[in-house]
Specification:
This protein is of the alpha/beta class. Helix content is 52%, strand content 13%. The chain has 14 helices and six strands. A six-stranded parallel beta sheet has the order 3-2-1-4-5-6. Helix 3 (85-95) runs antiparallel to helix 12. The longest helix has 25 residues, at 2-26. It is globular.
C-alpha cells in the first residue's frame, strides 16, 4: 500500500515537472522576423537569412519565431535600377511559395510615398496587437441577453473555481532582420533619421546576419545609440557564407549569363518570361535622388529660403 503511495507521489512530482516544462515552453516570447528591402530580385541569399535567423532566435531558449515577413520597398524609394514593385512582390511570393513560415506582405510596396523602416515595423507591430485583441476569449459572454447571460456568468464562475483564469497571451514581437550592410548603412550621412535608428533598435531590435571577421561589432562599439541598445542587437554568424546579391544577379542577366541555383527556379522562370532585367531597366531612376536623401534636400532648401 505504502509502495503504491510513493509511486503516486513520484508520478505527481513528474506531472508537476511536466507542467513546469510546458509553462517554460509557453513563456517564450513569440517573434516575427521582418525583412525590408528592394528584393530586386529576391535571391536564395534572402531566403537563407530567414533560416539562419530562425535557428539563432529559437536556440536562445527565450524566443520562438512564429513567422517571417518579406516586405518589398515601394517604387517611391527611387533606387537606381529598381523595377516595379508589382514584379518584385510576385517574385517574392513565388520564392516563398513552398515555405511554411515565410510570407510576403504588400502593404509597404503599395504606399504612394516611400515608408521609413520604423513606420513599417510599427505597422506590423500594431497589426499583431490588433489581431491579438481579436483572439482574446473574454468578450462574447457579455453579449448574451437575460437568463442566458446569467447562466454563462454562473458557468464561467464555476469553471474559474476549477482552474485559474488563463493568462492573456503576450503579443508577438516584431524584429528587423537584416544583413551587416543595413547595420552599417546607419552610418551613412542623412540616410537614416537618428530618432528612427533609436526607435528601430530600442523598441523593436535587430537580428543581423554577419560574416566571420565582419566589422559589425566594431560598428556597434563606435555608435553611441547602437552601443546603448546592444542587448537588442543580435549578431548571427553566417558560417556557410553566401555571397549572392541582387546587384550581381542583375549584372549576370544583363550579360546573358545563367542565374540558375542562385534564385529559386520559379523566380528565374518569371524573370525570363517577363524579360525583367536589362541595360535599360538598370537606368531607371538614374540621376534621381534616393527618397531618404530627398528629405534632406527639401530640409536644406526650406532652410535656405526661410
Amino acid at each position: 500500500m505504502g509502495h503504491n503511495h510513493k509511486g503516486g507521489i513520484r508520478l505527481f512530482h513528474l506531472d508537476q515537472q511536466l507542467q513546469v516544462l510546458n509553462m517554460e515552453n509557453s513563456e517564450k516570447t513569440e517573434v516575427v522576423l521582418l525583412a525590408c528591402g528592394s528584393f530586386n530580385p529576391v535571391t536564395n541569399m534572402h531566403l537563407r537569412l530567414f533560416e539562419l535567423a530562425r535557428d539563432y532566435v529559437n536556440r536562445t531558449g527565450k524566443y520562438k519565431v512564429i513567422k517571417g515577413i518579406i516586405s518589398p520597398v515601394g517604387d517611391a524609394y527611387k533606387k537606381k535600377g529598381l523595377i516595379s514593385a508589382h514584379h518584385r512582390v510576385v517574385m517574392a511570393q513565388l520564392a516563398t511559395k513552398n515555405s511554411s513560415w515565410v510570407e510576403v506582405d504588400t502593404w509597404e510596396s503599395l504606399q504612394k510615398e516611400w515608408m521609413e523602416t520604423a513606420k513599417v515595423l510599427r505597422h506590423h507591430q500594431e497589426k499583431l496587437e490588433a489581431s491579438s485583441c481579436d483572439h482574446q476569449p473574454d468578450s462574447p459572454v457579455l453579449e448574451m441577453p437575460g437568463r442566458k447571460r446569467k447562466w454563462a456568468e454562473h458557468r464561467s464562475e464555476f469553471s474559474q473555481e476549477r482552474s485559474p483564469e488563463p493568462k492573456r497571451k503576450a503579443v508577438p514581437k516584431v524584429k528587423l532582420l537584416c544583413g551587416a550592410d543595413l547595420l552599417e548603412s546607419f552610418g551613412v550621412p542623412n540616410l537614416w533619421k537618428s530618432e528612427d535608428i533609436a526607435k528601430i533598435v530600442g523598441d523593436y531590435g535587430l537580428i543581423c546576419i554577419t560574416r566571420a571577421g565582419s566589422d559589425a561589432q566594431k560598428f556597434i562599439y563606435e555608435s553611441d545609440v547602437l552601443w546603448q541598445h546592444q542587448a537588442n542587437i543580435h549578431l548571427v554568424n553566417e558560417w556557410i557564407t553566401n555571397d549572392i546579391s541582387s546587384t550581381k544577379i542583375r549584372r549576370a542577366l544583363r550579360r546573358g549569363q545563367s542565374i540558375r541555383y542562385l534564385v529559386p527556379d520559379l523566380v528565374q522562370e518569371y524573370i525570363e518570361k517577363h524579360n525583367l532585367y536589362s541595360s535599360e531597366s538598370e537606368e531607371r531612376n538614374v540621376g534621381v535622388i534616393l527618397a531618404p536623401l530627398q528629405r534632406y534636400v527639401v530640409d536644406t532648401n526650406s532652410n535656405t529660403t526661410a
